[in-house]
Amino acid sequence: MIQRHTFDFLKELVENNNREWFQANKERYDAARENVIDFAAKLIRLMQKIDPNIDTELDPKKCVMRIYRDIRFSKNKTPYKNNFGVSIPTKGHKLGGAEYYLQISPEKSFIAGGYWMPEAAHLKAIRQEIDYNSHDLKKIIDDPEFIKLFGEFRKQEQLKSVPRDYDAGNENIELLKLKSFVAFHYLENNELSKNNADEIIADVCRKIYPLNVFLNNAIA
To answer: Model-level pTM greater than 0.85?
Structure first.
């Protein structure tokens, strides 16, 4: 489970996002991060039973993302993220691929999966797979349980124009215009505080798994 002290640290970090406060509370940060690493380890073990493309040697420490922000090109100069991110990649794709991503925040936590903003070659391959095998994708995303958990898949950010090599009259144009292919589900923090929180999240990811298979097959 995610401990209360982890949420308390993040909540106070939102209100005190500066280096002086962070250094004074470094031990609290270290304890919160260890809590997240331990939770990630449990979740990864469950996820490996669901998705065989998750590396059996995956290090949970490397899955927990840095809390330090890169502010060089950002108008927001606060030095720290106000969340812990856990990225669980699927293996076999050197230039990226589908993954599972958990974000732990003081207010809005979520679990997501799929492929966010694919690089150009992968985006082209995914569009081709949609054009050739749209039935397979629509079987996944139009399933009532999928919609209940993740909402309408087609309502993600889309291109304003029709992508090159495709016609505006294509029956799958809404899918072909997507910039990302992500299933996204909010989590209540009291869910993350339960003893079986890892099982709750894994059950959601079980519904994401077919989407990740479709996307990884497209770029294989």
So the answer is: yes
